[in-house]
Design brief:
Rossmann fold; six-stranded parallel β-sheet; 14 helices; 2 domains; alpha/beta; binds adenosine monophosphate; elongated
């Protein structure tokens, strides 16, 4: 398989599938968070430095019926230029004579961007003839969009077959794959996974898979109360998924059988309303008074997590410990974030993967103090679940 480390891009037009699905201000259409654009810079720079040219291809939002101004990638062209430090030409379409003319005439060191591929429904239906047209823009295909690697779309997956020998991953995807593999196949121990967030149901497959690979599994967030219920505790109005109580029991049994140290919260901050203005108190987790709900982990739980995390060599964090969007219930999440930073400084490898823990680590400005922050979201979760992502498979095959 070709690799970005060894491929010779000199004189080649590299068609890069990037994930520039960035948030835009609703009125000015300015980019409000350019993390994904900055993440693509190493791959783009590498190709330009080697004497190649770059055609950037992405989607933005979820347009449903053709062109829509609010989803036009034209809004981000200047921002991308600024971030990569090179002027970026814009093709007002992703296929068609004008766009092909522009990419055909691209010279070494030049960069252009195609219009939103999702303005064509053939993108999401993965239509081969559409992928074939997109493929005309490049001599080599570089997939650097991990966030869409779980979709078998034309520009993420189907397109790869038109580059039988000239297809490879960019630095971003490569980094994502390597960091998850480091967690799942670690030879260093102990390995600790912290899984939080709202619901057990959405994390069940990951939890079961992790049980075969980790030494410690810390449960946090809303899903903890389903476990507490399974142990016969009183959970008040806390979030509980009744259908998953038996599943929680089974996870506890599996953990025991497999020798995994399952850390379930022992105390909790409860509130009398789902609000930052609610009254709160700290109680044992199985003794939540009627009418109260658990919205964060408590002091003893934080201490227990700290001890486990600080002793770990490899750490995965997915999902917040409480309703961290409200300051009153953010302490558990902040504490875990800080302890992961401390463990990383001591030499542990830490991966922050999956939506809201990524939001949390960014909110607390700690992203550069952990080993790797995934940009993948849903794709990262599926990769952790062991699903072979179509966008990854298409480049590997
Ligand atoms: P997820 O997308 O499954 O990772 O869930 C993230 C969401 O879980 C965040 O929006 C949190 O506010 C929410 N969450 C965390 N802890 C709790 C809790 N104890 N009760 C209700 N929601 C929670």
């Amino acid at each position: 398989m070709a690799s970005i480390h060894t491929y010779n891009f000199a004189g080649k037009r590299a068609l890069i599938r990037v994930d520039f699905n960035v948030p835009l201000d609703k009125e000015t259409f300015e980019v409000t968070d350019d993390t994904r654009i900055r993440a693509a810079v190493p791959t783009i720079k590498h190709i330009l430095d080697q004497g190649g040219s770059v055609v950037l291809m992405s989607h933005l939002g979820r347009p449903t019926g053709g062109y829509e101004n609010r989803f036009s990638l034209e809004h981000i062209v200047n921002h991308v230029s600024k971030v990569i430090g090179v002027p970026v030409k814009f093709a007002g379409d992703c296929i068609g004579a004008g766009a092909f003319e522009m990419s055909k005439n691209l010279k070494a060191g030049e960069v252009m961007m195609l219009e939103n591929v999702r303005f064509y429904k053939q993108e999401t239906t993965g239509t081969e003839s559409f992928a074939e047209q997109l493929a005309q823009h490049g001599d080599v295909f570089v997939n650097d969009a991990f966030g869409t690697a779980h979709r078998a779309h034309a520009s993420t997956t189907i397109i790869a077959k038109f580059f039988p020998n000239d297809k490879l991953f960019g630095y971003l995807i490569e980094g994502e794959i390597k960091s998850v593999d480091k967690i799942l196949n670690s030879t260093e121990k102990p390995v600790t996974a912290i899984v939080g967030g709202a619901k057990v149901s959405s994390k069940i497959v990951i939890i079961e898979r992790l049980l075969d690979r980790v030494d410690n599994l810390i449960i946090g967030g809303g899903m903890a109360y389903t476990f507490v219920k399974a142990m016969g505790g009183k959970v008040g109005n806390s979030l509980v998924e009744g259908d998953f109580v038996d599943m929680a029991k089974s996870i506890m049994e599996q953990a025991k059988a497999k020798g995994v140290n399952l850390v379930i919260p022992t105390d909790t901050i409860v509130a009398d309303a789902f609000s930052n203005d609610a009254n709160t108190q700290e109680v044992n987790i199985g003794e939540i008074p009627d009418g109260w709900m658990g919205l964060d982990v408590g002091t003893n739980t934080i201490a227990a997590c700290k001890e486990v995390i600080l002793n770990s060599k490899v750490i995965l964090w997915n999902g917040p410990m409480g309703v961290f969007e409200m300051d009153k219930f953010a302490r558990g999440t902040i504490s875990v974030a800080n302890v992961i930073v401390e463990a990383t400084a001591k030499g542990a490898f830490s991966l922050i993967g999956g939506g809201d823990s990524v939001a949390a680590i960014n909110k607390y400005n700690l992203a550069d103090k952990v080993s790797y922050v995934s940009t993948g979201g849903g794709a990262m979760l599926e990769y952790l679940e062991g699903i072979e992502l179509p966008g990854i498979k298409a480049v590997r095959d």
